[in-house]
Fold each of these.
Amino acid sequence: MTKYTSDIGLEVHVELSTRSKMFCSCAVVDNTISAPNTAVCPVCCGMPGTLPVINRNAVELALRAAIALECDIAETSIFARKNYFYPDLPKGYQISQYEYPLAQNGRILIRTDEGEKYVRIHRAHLEEDTGKLTHVVQDENNHSLVDLNRAGVPLLEIVSEPDMHTVEDVAAYSRELRLLLRMIGVSSGDMEKGVMRFEANVSMRPEGCEELGTRVEIKNLNSFKAMENAIIYQMGIQKATLERGEKVHQQTLGWNESEGKTFSQRSKENANDYRYFPEPDLPPLIVDKDWVSEIMKAMPELPNAKRARYENDYALQQEHIERLVEDIHTAIFFESCVQAAPSLAPKSIVNWMLTDLFAWINTNGASLGDLKLDPSSFTNMIRMVEEGVINQNTGKEVLAEMLESGDSAELIVGKKGLQQVSDSGLINKMISSILEKYPDELQDYLNGKDQIANWLFGQVMRKAKGKANPQVVKKILQEQLDLKTQE
Ligand code: ADP
Ligand code: MG
Ligand code: ZN
């Protein structure tokens, strides 16, 4: 039976996190909060006689993305009119870039269980977003409502080459892209808010065949899950079609999330349906080399550089590195901790962070940014555990209390008398009294029930109200038991 290879290319639209729109001074607002049509002006409403002006900050953010994606950046790129009518596009055209995009020929390194590989970026260009339509039924009539708050919001469209072959590749690429854009402050990447949207192009060919198969394009994929489901579904359909000896037809599909099916939207439009031509109202976009090198100098550390540094400098395990790198606030908190306590092993900082601290944050619905705990007080607590002032379990209690009250570890330990007892004289006495209190259990131990030793250990720790140094208790208890055995 013939085996098939899938080829997948993604077109990703991201709204850039500028304060104002792409070609006018209207504010970019959060549509989940702002009332419809409150951030609009004659330019973004498409009134005749108005003129667009390029938002320099949008270009700067696009350049940052282009640099992070290792693209060639065009010194001169051209805005183009893409003509089509749609009720949420009052101008009758969208300003985009066509023949001369801002950036081309980039790549992203992705990681899957199969290893590492590059996915090439075909191009990245600037354009403006459209408005938003909402369809409602009122008094048994259908209505479509137009909100133009989103019309003219700066978009970067990032088009990959068809270098992905599995949904794992797609997941790794799209997540890495979002991480990258977030880390360089280009976009929030919030898919629930539609800030990042995907279109997937999928085709199949017999294994070993060089020529790519006919693709279908699936539009409006608004979550990673939806995209992955839609691609898996399409791969199934195409494989069955090819196995029947039929041809796949090039077309544009939508994705019905609740039915888990793609549906036909229209047969594939061609570029010439849009009658692209250079935008007469805008000059060419000139990006000189000095500007690019200025932006390059100010670039924050990229995820891959961070991963490598955490591995080389701190010898952290991969899984922990990923968790630190996946959120910029987590990475910043971790690095501040390392700086605050250079004598602590970074590994133990990470352990406390990812287990106890994050568990508290999750159960309390808090976030790293609004804690009553700063990196230096957090590491002070860890240091007290490592130096044996308090034991591990007391450390967990102290941490919870620090998070509740904002008090320092020293204050809490002092006030509550939580210092660990490591004094061997005191511990010897406690153990003797426990062995006297439980003669039967002791006899069981002496008769060969080894596990009684653990139980006795528990009794001693209880008597010490958890404050005894467990290592010291273990050692002295064993010594006393050994003596009894010899008697
Ligand atoms: P359009 O703008 O009409 O959608 P593009 O040429 O810009 O067309 O390609 C869009 C996307 O389709 C790119 O991400 C590209 O990698 C992908 N693509 C092109 N050909 C194929 C194919 N045969 N199989 C899968 N993806 C493809
Ligand atoms: Mg397309
Ligand atoms: Zn406007």
Note: The CA atoms of residues 89 and 130 lie 6 Å apart.
Amino acid sequence: MAKLKSNDIPLSVFENAMQQFDEAASKLNIDADMLEVLKHPRKSLIVKLPIRRDNGKIEVFTGYRVQHSINRGPAKGGVRYHPKVNLDEVMALAAWMTWKCAVVGIPFGGAKGGIACDPTTMSQRELEYLTRRYTSEIMDIIGPERDVPAPDVNTNPQTMAWMMDTFSMHHRQTVTAAVTGKPIEIGGSRGRVEATGRGVMIAAREAARHKDLPFEGATVAVQGFGNVGSMAAKLMHRAGCKIVAVSDVFGAVYNEQGLYIPHLIDYVKENGKIVGFPEAEAISHEELLSMDCDILVPAALENVIREDNAPSIRAKIIAEGANGPITPDADKILNKKGVFIVPDILCNAGGVTVSYFEWVQDRMGYFWEEEEVNHRLETVIVRAFNDVLKMAEEHTVSMRIAAFMLAIKRVMDVTMMRGFYS
Ligand code: GLU
């Protein structure tokens, strides 16, 4: 497989997250000292991970785990493997997890982890050793009641199985609730693999309903074809949308009549990329982003829509499958243009919501049918969408600022209730 192309992530993603926080907080009239309490991550851990590569050499990788908040419950959030992972990015992603869990009303705080590595150049053995060493190095701060990791970019149920096993070996008992996003056979939840994509589909559908735009037949462009992008495309296709364009790190494909997504998924399974898919023509990444379509789903990494390319966006709705795909400057441009944006902390919250269901099921030792998981997920996302919309209309702010306002208020309320231990 070809090497991952590193994305062009400017220095501070955390700065972007802070800007969103400040704008929302200013509408809530919060005391400056309370802002300081809510803003900063409570704990950041950096670990060095020496791994013996298949060629016999030792390579030292750097891993991170940041807990932004535990005020509403155990910290929660994924672990990503990517060459560009750094502390600033993980801090931003951890903060977004706090606000995400609060927006959908699940009893968790926020965390994130990651390892700076290129998993596409590593063997399964190397990935297993890296994952196990990382888990053992962050062991003291994770656990079912402390901080519960999950999959994110370039990690998957197998990664979670290794994490759960490593944690369990050290604790001399099987602790399934220590991580979520596991394979179903070892305490995973039905519906978890599709959950983030399903949440994106539900949120996009609610946005279309709000904008009086028929969802069936709506034209959709999806940027990114990992777990989130592919599942969102599959479920939106199934719901009757016309997925006209899809991209991954290697390129983008287009079909005016709509791509047949099950074929594309099979093609990617075989070829490792979407480039060359015979039922489509090749286009560029920029062409995909500026496509004349109803719904654009950025579902890869941060800062894909920036000040320079935002003016060329023609979609009516943007459903943020990724975390932080739009910079604050681009956000302003798009809001002015009247694009309806369903923000990440609402739009992609389906994953962590079903992670919550998984954690609940593990702790009960009783597992639900997929129908029940999907039904509960639907209820949570639709309710959160309506809560955010109501806030946006009441305060005449964007959906993003409304989502942040709702989340900050919820976290602030429990912080006051719990008081300060000093
Ligand atoms: N990585 C996902 C996210 O960014 C899921 C996190 C989780 O399930 O804890 O929301």
Note: The pocket of glutamic acid is lined by residues 76-78, 150, 152, 180-181, 323, 348, 351-352, 355 (CB under 6 Å).
